[in-house]
């Protein structure tokens, strides 16, 4: 069930049942507007494709500073990237924390979404059970991914194709990076792809039960994995909203870089986690350069990412240009 966090209270409430039906019906004009659908000036709604993790804290906490300036703020945790995309297109949310593959797929289907800033660099890790020593060992073994169309799945499958093309793992879906890390440590699967932010706390005390085989944050460092995305309509018609949100996000990036330990205290509230458990996570992520130091989108990285998906066969050649999926006017 989707979770709506309204006016920075961090309470959980269900979205109206039948959200997916309402989204489907919006093209005909039959669906009623939701709380954030026609966000008036002074309102900012941010969507996530699932539950929040440490890497999402800056984008969520940026709302707090906007609230202090008089904006009405809200974020919604959706059950899937597909529902999140429909919500962005309809206007239920103004911004979405979204992987590039979701943006590209939506635009191929007729949407007009633009990535405006990177918010977490590629931190994906290929993690495996202790007996796996190389990619080929995953042949015939259970390997989990988030969903068929997710960004992390694309990175995993590309790595497999490049590294051990003859291997045929038994794929299964386990939603959520942290859930996949737990499944691996508990021996339910032989390999998966996880975010480093989830791996750091999961492996602590479990070092003999699993390991990192390859760090895609190193091997695919020029590829985008997680962005803040909005619509062209919002960029053109609500520039003050985009500028205000990105200014607030920049302040969060700066605070995080300056003092990761202090940032863990603030992040703990929005994540519902123990601040002490987050200190090591943020210190390691900052040290490894996982968080950007400035808002904006690198168009060379957009081009490399687009090429990555074209070469994988998931995005047809010639259907999309870099300018179709990203806008760098807000680069610091």
Q: What does this molecule look like?
A:
By secondary structure, the protein is of the alpha/beta class. The protein has two domains: 3-121 and 223-325, 3-Layer(aba) Sandwich (D-Maltodextrin-Binding Protein, domain 2); 124-219, D-Maltodextrin-Binding Protein, domain 2 (3-Layer(aba) Sandwich), CATH 3.40.190. Helices cover 42% and strands 18% of the residues. It has 14 helices and twelve strands. The strands form two sheets. It has a seven-stranded mixed β-sheet, sandwiched between helices. Strands 9-8-10-7-11 form a five-stranded mixed β-sheet, with helices on both faces. The longest helix is centred in the last third of the chain and has 20 residues, at 239-258. The radius of gyration is 19 Å and the shape is globular.
- According to CATH, the homologous superfamily of the largest domain is Periplasmic binding protein-like II
Tell me the span between the first and last alpha carbons.
37 Å
The shape, in one word, is globular
The count of DSSP E runs of length 2 or more, i.e. the number of strands, is: 12
Helix share bin: 40-55%
CATH class wording of the largest domain: Alpha Beta
Give the DSSP E fraction (strand runs of 2 or more residues). 15-25%
Tally of helical runs: 14
What CATH architecture of the largest domain would you give? 3-Layer(aba) Sandwich
Structural class by sheet pairing and helices:
alpha/beta
What ranges have pLDDT less than 50 throughout 5 or more consecutive residues?
A: 6-41
CATH fold label of the largest domain: D-Maltodextrin-Binding Protein, domain 2
How are strands sequenced across the largest beta sheet? 2-1-4-3-5-12-6
